[in-house]
Amino acid sequence: MTPNVLPAREGAFRSIPYMGVIYVVHEAMKLGFRNGHPDWCNLGQGQPEVGEMEGAPPRYSAIKMEPGDHAYGPIGGTEELRTAIAAHYNRLFRRGKSSQYTADNVSVASGGRLMLTRIFAALGNGNLGYQIPDYTAYEDMIAYHDHRLTPVLLQTKEDDGFMLPPAVLARAIDEHALSAFLVSNPCNPTGRALRDDELAEYVALARDTGCAVLLDEFYSHFIFDGDKPGSGGVSGAEFVEDVNSDPVLLVDGLTKSFRYPGWRLGWTVGPKAIIEELGRAASAIDGGPSMPIQRAAIDVLEPARADQETNAVRTVFSRKRNLMVERLTKMGIRLAAAPNSTFYAWGTIENLPAPLNDVETFFRSALARKVLTVPGVFFDVNPSKVRKGPSPFENWMRFSFGPPEDNVRMGLDRLEAMVNEARG
Question: DSSP of 81-123, one letter per residue?
């Protein structure tokens, strides 16, 4: 007897494009790329080098399991890790302030994107401001909640280094009645960071207007002063007055500044009442982070070890930043502004010789030379693709100096040879 099987319905699933960097890697794999391949240069990668590094503490090579690790842990993270994270912020950014973060001000998740997913799930109905260019993952995160959130684009300008001046944000909060504003700071892809007075103004706007400012600070310790390493990290935590009333959320983790992306450990720091709501969101979304990874993270945040790591990051990556800025400029790739943070350079190829002044041609030609780069259109955050017409970033590319210096240099050598060949 033939079983009575109902035919599958077509269209049960939507077509989902790869996120920017994942698409780039997917296309490179068709040509033989794999992570760690010695003959490939991933100038598109979104992670820092993860091996032993000059001046940094030794990399962890083992994590001990304990009996309790086999059970579910607290949804928002263990009290021990949340206490260590709060102490990390108080030590670096809140010395001498009467209002201090505690474990109640911290929520932990298995990675930054999952932490952001909790935040989006917890946002109430309202208008959400965002800027372009910015982190590619925001596009779908916003679109998933368009039944509750109305996205409001705040356009940045090249003359401002693609950064949003506080005065522009202030006007938008007033004119569009923004209930929240989301931004990566330091910014992926531009490599620019709001600091000092400008960042203080963002936090003051949140405090004075009630508009929640959501600061994605995953590159918080990749800070450079001109062509030299910065003296410390950057965080909105420095300018919060009352940790339980200022509507400012800080999102960070071990992924970038501590060079452990594979650990998938992220956190949010903010007012206690909002953190409680994030825990309720987590109860429906993910159920909480890994227990053994959390215990290891406490060691990573031990003050002397943490400072040794982040100081080494600024020293080594500052040198790579200078190399990339010099070489890209020499090739004729114009940067909107030299990066003062992250490990990215954001430049336009419009002045390169044809056909390399076309993004698709540049991207494919670089791949043919075993070099990955990321077209700028991926950072044109456009939830549900409601904006039509050409992207303002059709001539822009993101270049990463995340890999080890020798690999970055090899990639730049190949790009320079490609450009010189086109010049004839």
Answer: HHHHHHHHHHHHH-TT-SS---GGGEEEESSHHHHHHHHHHH-
Please tell me the distance from the alpha carbon of residue 86 to that of residue 104, in angstroms, as a whole number: 9
**Residue 44: which CATH number?**
3.90.1150.10
Is 63 inside a domain boundary? no
State residue 43 phi and psi, 5-degree precision: -80, 15
- The pair of structure tokens assigned to 41 is 């240069």
Question: What CA–CA distance (Å, rounded) separates 332 from 318?
Answer: 21
The residue out of 288, 306, 324 marking a domain boundary is 306
pTM over 0.85: yes
Q: How does pLDDT run across 114-159, given as a tens digit for each residue?
A: 999 999 999 999 999 999 999 999 999 999 999 999 999 999 999 9
Residue type at 89?
Answer: Y
pLDDT band at 1 (very low <50, low <70, confident <90, very high): very low
Q: Are 290 and 65 within 8 A, CB to CB?
A: no
**Beta strand 248-253 pairing with 266-269:** antiparallel
Assess whether 77 and 209 both reside in one domain: yes
Q: Are 89 and 258 in contact (CB under 8 A)?
A: no
187-201 residue pLDDT tens: 999 999 999 999 999
Domain count, the chain: 2
Cβ atoms 21, 374 nearer than 8 A: yes
Return mean pLDDT, the chain. Answer: 95
